[in-house]
Amino acid sequence: MSTLIRDEGGIHVECDMDYSKYVINGINYVPCIIRVNELGKVMDVLMSYVRGDHVLSQLMINAVGDELRIEMPITIMSSGKSLGEVINELIYLIIGIRHCLHSIEVKH
Asked: What is the DSSP letter of 73?
């Protein structure tokens, strides 16, 4: 297997796609680290959205500094999305939240 790497809009993602090495409660998962500048500004909105989303709510997410450490169960693929698509969704969600929060700051 390989490492998935994405760099988009100031967000850097690395996932070890060799999920055979990682197991929690009998379920294989993909560990990912997402580095986001000023993560603290988007964290509350991001987590609120994630909790309400059927697919993203399956992720185990911990924030450490400006990093999101994610454990993505491979069972998430039964939702019809690939692991890469889930990562892309997170990236664009973070970009959108940052853009909206920046627009709000500029207006005030």
From this structure: E
- Residue 62 exposed, middle or buried by CB count within 10 Å (0-12, 13-18, 19+): exposed
pLDDT digits 0-9 by tens, 49-84: 999 999 999 999 999 999 999 999 999 999 999 999
pTM of the complete model: 0.86
- Following DSSP, what letter does each residue of 3-65 receive, concatenated? EEEEEETTEEEEEE--GGG-EETTEEEEEEEEEETTHHHHHHHHHHHHHH-TTGGGSEEEEET
Whole-angstrom distance, CA of residue 65 vs CA of residue 107: 28
Tens digit of each residue's pLDDT (9 = 90 or more) over 22-48: 999 999 999 999 999 889 889 999 999
Q: CA nearest 46: which of 38, 80, 17, 72?
A: 38
